[in-house]
Amino acid sequence: MQSRVEPLEEGKEPQVTNRTIQSKALPLRLLRVLVPFLALCVAFSAISIYTIRYFGINSAMTAVKSTFEPCYEEAESLQQWIRPPLNLMHTMTDAELLWRASFVPRIKKYPFQRVPKIAFMFLTKGPLPLAPLWERFLKGHQGLYSVYVHSLPSFEPNFPPSSVFYRKQIPSQISEWGRMSMCDAEKRLLANALLDVSNERYSFMGVFDDPGPFGRGRYNDNMAPEINVTQWRKGSQWFEVNRKLAISIVEDTKFYPKFEQFCRPACYVDEHYFPTMLTIQVGNLLANRSITWVDWSRGGPHPATFGRADITEEFFKRILGGHNCTYNDRSSSICFLFGRKFAPSALEPLLRLSPKVLGF
């Protein structure tokens, strides 16, 4: 390092200067500031590279985008609207179920190839004694029918995966004969079946006006003005309806309270609620006959029950022959598609004779 003495003006002391030190002082200060900043930049870059390498840039971007995504899933295709429920054991309440089942498309023409199906609904306490007969009847017709079973909530079915009844139970509640809980169970079955847009046939509702003590004699004047005695109807609990009538049943809130409050034993609500309500609302759509064969000849409050000894070829000839009726305004000799009541002991002869007399 070299020093030199500047020439002095008069009256001033000599001054020693160091140009080398002055020229290097400023860059040294800048380095002290820049070095930490550069170190911070390098560290941030290393962290970014590590994050992208191990987590991927898409994940990082997704995390940012997810903050702004809505809390619902939008339908991506029509299939999400028209496919039947994958699991019948849903968590909807009855109110939610009936509301959902009442949805009706306003455009009548379907924008897809719809294959109408028949919904078979079973109301039972537990086991289905005649299940093997139904299995045989439905065999080979997959895609043309649906099955729904309403049983006691405590019942645990053990049908094998190959059975048409496998996982066909719906959320159920206790139902009592002659009480509104029986109609609730029937509405529950219909509502679950309506969730499948392809279910079309639940067939007919048969009703009639009975002026006697077991018909109009059960009418309660408190049901007026919604229902008067001339509109009071009676019909079988074992009914068949189409999709339009099924929707009319599940969406009803006008007549339900009247029947719940004023039709109690000896007024059996399951014999009057649906027939009366549908007669008032859509009477022109009712067949006013039943397609279920029943034998009341033995008398009493219940029809005859048939066991093993009753099931013969002659028995079936009595059911299937000698009848004439109309179907879609055409004459037909096939008037009954169902029959009741059959005891569990009737299963063996029914299976044995069904190929010959029933055709399956």
From TrEMBL:
One of its GO terms (cellular component) is membrane. The chain crosses the membrane at residues 33-52. It is a single-pass type II membrane protein. It comes from the Eukaryota. Keywords: Glycoprotein, Glycosyltransferase, Membrane, Transferase, Transmembrane, Transmembrane helix. It is found in: Membrane. GO terms for molecular function: glycosyltransferase activity. It holds the Pfam family Branch. This is Core-2/I-branching beta-1,6-N-acetylglucosaminyltransferase family protein.
